Amino acid sequence: MPMKIDIINGPNLNLTGTREPCVYGTRGIPQLLAGLQDKYPDVEFSFYQSNCEGELVTRIQESGFNTEGIILNAGAYTHTSIALRDAITAVEAPVVEVHISNVFAREEFRAKSMIAGVCIGSIAGFGLDSYVLAVEALRLRYAGKLPYGV
Hints:
Layout: E1 3-9, H1 21-24, H2 29-39, E2 43-49, H3 53-63, E3 69-73, H4 82-90, E4 95-99, E5 121-124, H5 129-142
Parallel strand pairs: 1-2, 1-3, 3-4, 4-5
Helix pairs in contact: 3-4
């Protein structure tokens, strides 16, 4: 039975590849997903993106009991959403917080994450490869080789 990982992206991430390419790069989400599937044929990926906070909460609730892990790029909601934090704590699946850019090298408000404390880890600043690193972390956790984290 393949490991299941849900990738959940928040606001404006549907524009990845065209939005501020100097910050977010020129590769889009379709290229990311194709690359992940090629690299990890033993993983069943699902993907969801919404610009609406409540829809992201609902998706976390829906997938958080049916997957072995969630990769969450909450976008700007990272810095404001207690609702996303509560959704993460309500589900069983481990969640890895991901950011394409190095949020700590940007505006001061981006350095504060409302969700980091309830995720098993945070990865930022490696472009779309941040998602690859998150998959690696979840695979290690699934294999019992990464016991630490929330």
